[in-house]
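Session log. Operator J.P. requested a structure for one protein chain; no other inputs attached. Running the standard single-chain path with token output.
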Amino acid sequence: MKINVEVECTPEEARRAMGLPDLAPVHERYVSMMVDAIDKQGSPEAFQQMLQSWSPMGEASMGLWRAMFDAGSKTGK
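Structure written below.
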């Protein structure tokens, strides 16, 4: 037996229904910090260092992003 249930709601309503916390203030603070850092950092290398220090996995995370971008740019050619 297979039962399908469709619920029409906004992402906010779904978040509340599942009891998940509202992370909008955290996101706004993070974006604000990034904008401030971009304004203050002059070089791309300094910006990359900042992102590495903020990323949860550090260099491993940056390597994953580089690999994904490289793979995407190769398939687009």
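Operator note: The chain has a mean pLDDT of 80.
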